[in-house]
Structure formats: structure tokens, C-alpha cells
Design a protein that fits this description.
alpha/beta; TIM Barrel; eight-stranded parallel sheet; two-stranded antiparallel sheet; 10 helices; 10 strands
Length: about 280
């Protein structure tokens, strides 16, 4: 991983950039459009949104304005919990695709493992994949047992699992399971909602490597083979976040960051959520 353009290869052969921009909580309209345009101008080629973020139209407008060939971009969106189920997922996908203004989506994810619904939802994703409307399909916030349940009778195995992953939630078991299954792990909330700047070890390593605590953590993600999508609306920070390809953390420092694990979540628990 030496360049922002470097990509992992999903188990179906599709290339997915290791690094992208997340737009959770970024306001529809000017704010999201400027963030996406800044990211693309800085060399980002992967943008991650979701139906529930309510900013797909802005993401689509920014993609159009950026003037980068569509095939160079990797666009992810997700089906929201209220839309899960077979027919409703197919309909939700069309709504997302229309808002984004795209003929196809690169990666479509089930946002949360809604009990009793995610298998039907997955069947809809398999159809979208077979119909060529999506280049890759995956899940988000799935634990090992969710994946085992889904994979027991699915036709197409998930290509990606996007989960909360950071130094306080190292997800050792899930990472090992996904690696063995050929499912690419992707991190949301990699910067612990800003908490990385208050961790003494990360400050110490930032000084050692001449980087910021955020850059240390984003590099740690990549060296663990985890795709990462930090969110920012600040053009300078968007650029700085991606400045992680010119250094490497030592094995010892990787282990020291791993040891920060507290099994602590900043987001909801995938086994106990009610939305």
C-alpha cells in the first residue's frame, strides 16, 4: 500500500480502493458536495454513503461535477433497516441509484443485521449483483454468527463486511473469520469520533513518525489489511487523512496499538440495536 490509488481485490475479482471518504452525518447539499469534490480532487476514488445518511443526491452531484471517469470511482451505498426484505430492498436500491445518478453502484451493503430480515434482503442483493446493477455486495455490522447464518444458504458470499474498527475495538475474532472466509473487512469510525487525539500512545507515536494521531491509526488500519473510510468535511483534513502512504509502522508499534483494545464501541452493538 504505497499510494492512495492502491486497491484490494475482492473475492469476485473487483478492485476496491484501500482508502475512501465516509460521509456519515455530512449534510445534504453544499456540505457533502464540497467534501466529495475535495476528496476526489485530492486523489480519493472511493466514496461511502448510505440511504439513511440522506445525502446520496449530493454525493451524486459532486461525482458528476468532479469530471472523473465513472469507471475510476468506487461508490458504496447501503440499504436501511426499514427497507429490508426482498421487494422493498430492490425498490430501495433503485431509489438510491436514482439519487446518486448512477447506472450501477460499485458496492451495496446491508446496513445492519435486522433479525428475521437480512436473509431475504441478501437474496435481493444477490439478484442486483447477478443483474449487473452492483459490482459487489456485502454487509455492515455483521458479527461472526450473523455471517455464519447468512453463508449457510446464500448463493453469493459477501465480499465486504464494514464494521466499527479502531484501537479500542480491534475485532480480532471477526478479522480472523473474515480473512479465512475471503471477506474484506472495512472500518467505519476509524478515528473513534475524534478520541484518537486524546490517546497518549497515539500522540507518542505521532511524534515518533512525524505524523498526526489520525494518520497513525489510519496507517494501522491499512497494515492490518482493513479498508478504511475516515469522514471529514474539511479539505485540509481530507488531504491530510490520505497522507499515510509514505511511512510504515513497525511490528512492535502495531502490537502496542493492538494492546489498546477495550472491546469498546462508540456506535451501537450489532447484537442489541432497536432501529
Amino acid at each position: 500500500m504505497k499510494h492512495l490509488s492502491d486497491a484490494t481485490v475482492l473475492h469476485n475479482g473487483v478492485k476496491m480502493p484501500w482508502f475512501g471518504l465516509g460521509v456519515w452525518k455530512v449534510k445534504e447539499g453544499e456540505e457533502v458536495e464540497n467534501a466529495v469534490k475535495s476528496a476526489i480532487a485530492a486523489g480519493y476514488r472511493s466514496i461511502d454513503t448510505a440511504a439513511v445518511y440522506q445525502n446520496e443526491a449530493g454525493v451524486g452531484a459532486a461525482i458528476k461535477a468532479a469530471g472523473v471517469p465513472r469507471e475510476e470511482l468506487f461508490i458504496t451505498t447501503k440499504v436501511w433497516n426499514a427497507d429490508q426484505g426482498y421487494e422493498s430492498t430492490l425498490q430501495a436500491f433503485e431509489e438510491s441509484r436514482t439519487k446518486l445518478g448512477l447506472e450501477y453502484v460499485d458496492l451495496y451493503l446491508i446496513h445492519w443485521p435486522v433479525k428475521g430480515k437480512y436473509k431475504e434482503t441478501w437474496k435481493a442483493l444477490e439478484k442486483l449483483y447477478k443483474d449487473g446493477k452492483v459490482r459487489a455486495i456485502g454487509v455492515s455490522n455483521f458479527q461472526v454468527h450473523h455471517l455464519e447464518d447468512l453463508m449457510a444458504d446464500c448463493e453469493v458470499k459477501p465480499m465486504v463486511n464494514q464494521v466499527e474498527f479502531h484501537p479500542y475495538l480491534v475485532q480480532t475474532e471477526l478479522r480472523a473469520f473474515c480473512k479465512q472466509a475471503g471477506i474484506q473487512l472495512e472500518a467505519w469510525s476509524p478515528l473513534m469520533q475524534g478520541e484518537v487525539f486524546r490517546v497518549p500512545l497515539l500522540q507518542e507515536l505521532a511524534e515518533k513518525y512525524g505524523k498526526t494521531p489520525a494518520q497513525i491509526v489510519l496507517r494501522w488500519d491499512l497494515q492490518h489489511g482493513v479498508v478504511t473510510i475516515p469522514k471529514s468535511v474539511n479539505p485540509d483534513r481530507i488531504k491530510a487523512n490520505a497522507d499515510v502512504f509514505d511511512f510504515e509502522l513497525s511490528a512492535e508499534d502495531m502490537a502496542r496499538i493492538d494492546a489498546l483494545d477495550k472491546h469498546h464501541r462508540f456506535g451501537p452493538d450489532p447484537d442489541n440495536f432497536d432501529f
